[in-house]
Amino acid sequence: MAALGVAVSNPYEQQLLTIIGIHTLLALGLNMLMGYAGQISLGHAAFFGLGAYGTGVLTTHFQWSPWASLPAVLVFAALSGYLIGRPILRLSGYYLAMGTLGLGIIVHVVFREWDTLTGGASGLVGIPPLTVGRLIVGLGRSGFFAVWATVVLFFVLCGRVVDSRIGRALRALGDSPGAAAASGIHTAHLKAVIFSFSAVMAALAGYLYAHLLGFISPSSFDFLMSIRMVTMVVIGGMASIWGSLLGASVITLLPEWLHVFSDYEMMVYGLILMVVMIFLPQGLTRGVLDAVRRTRARTASS
Amino acid sequence: MSGQHPFLTIEGVSKAFGGIQALYEVSFAVQERHIHALIGPNGAGKTTLFNVISGAFPPDEGSIRLDGQDIQGRPMHELVRRGIARTFQNVELFGSMSVLENVLVGCHSRTRCGLIGAMVRWPWVAREERWARERAMELLEMVGLADSALKRAVDLPFGWQRLVEIARALAGDPKLLLLDEPAAGLNAVETEKLSRLIEQIRALGVTVLLVEHDMNLTMDISDRIVVLDRGRKLAEGTPREIQSSDAVMEAYLGKKH
After folding, report:
1. Most B CBs within 10 Å: which of A31, A74, A162, A183, as the mutation test of the B interface?
2. CA of A176 vs chain B CAs: smallest distance (Å)
3. From 3.30.300.30, 2.40.160.90, 3.40.50.300, 3.30.160.40, which CATH number describes the B1-83+174-257 domain?
4. How many CA atoms lie within 13 A of B242 on its CB side?
5. CB contact under 8 A, A187 and B85
6. pLDDT of A145-158, one tens digit each?
7. Model ipTM value
8. pTM higher than 0.90 for the full model?
9. Looking at beta carbons, which residues of chain B come within 8 Å of A180?
10. Chain centroid, CA A214 distance in Å
11. Exposed / middle / buried, residue A2 (Cβ in 10 Å: 0-12, 13-18, 19+)
12. At how many degrees (to 10) do helices A241-257 and A11-31 cross?
């Protein structure tokens, strides 16, 4: 990744890779909740927006330094994630989908309508960039490295969580909630904890997004964004850390590549998603791995 | 003698679902380190009673005492910590996990690494993880599945899956083990092995309460038997007493044989 960061000097490509990094953080956090613990959220853009607007409001209206607003935003996301997660995750299946959908819509409306604080539909401008000494972290190479260093850190952290007592408890919950409870897992607490964890990751992604772009508007944190996050997880592969990277990359790059279809862009996009899901229902990661294994087995046998 | 100490006391427990009275004023006591069987025709309320004891739902009336303490209505994860473990009639293993991981989940209540601990990996977390793995492997040795530790649990033959479930239940270091039809779906050889395993578990100091349809197994290993019929306790006694009871023969054994 570092080599890629040095090699790519075209600002457009640098920005694209930075956005992929931010999306990877979102997908990875949501995958911990959806892929491992088996709990869906159709409103996770709310926490992405909470991170972005939280730091945006603190640094513009209240002149906080971005470094001071970072812990504030993350702690707020953790607490609100737990407190919202505890009651909402009593629901399951379709009902949980509806509940989280409602959460996403409410938070989006707050971003749009509370215009004295958020700037309303026209957005919040003048968010200061992160600075390290005299270095200003912008959308160029510095932003690329800041985002991808964060992604690598969370790859390690999430890998450790998955391979631990908590990771096993999450998968137990996803596999069989009844047997998980009978094994001594406090399921209501665990669900809220992982919801809170994924909220923190989404808020961190929002924080980076706000400070890199310097401008945010409610449309980046709407229902469609929540759906895109779910799509990244599902297309990449549920319960797969690498799948989150792959899913985020595909869902970010696909629209860029599909510009050649101009008016038909969204149709082709939808069609590709359908084809992937029909032929690789386990997601791209598993699908590709299985294909490799099959080819290898065929060459071995012939 | 320690055998005279009532470890689990069920007193006047009733439970209704809608208009159906699944349990009606059921009372009995299970002595410490006994193997206690619960028998009765289908729909007698055996599994409902298991669910009430293990905390899946509270009884409508009555009390349940574990080692002298009231436990009715307590949440399941707390009861596991207090020493109640159970298996399921239809085997509920974690499908995405290996045999070893399934048993490791059973260690959940005896370990304490949280989300932060998992991310930071303090030295004590690594020690705890090693301890849990050793414990899980010991239990797999005990049920004879150490060689299959890394296989996916749901790929094993059904009889072995039951053993994985028992190992998982034992991993929480229970004082009371509830076995819901452990011999269902097992052949004669497997059933014979199972009865020796249950006796071995009792020898570890665990009190066992089991629901079972296999009469040979039940009569062979139980210290006491409670017969339920349509939610009520019909009889209670030693296997010999139960076998010679006319009421039981009529309600249950008589119909079956």
Report:
1. A183
2. 6
3. 3.40.50.300
4. 27
5. no
6. 999 999 999 999 99
7. 0.91
8. yes
9. 94, 105
10. 20
11. exposed
12. 140
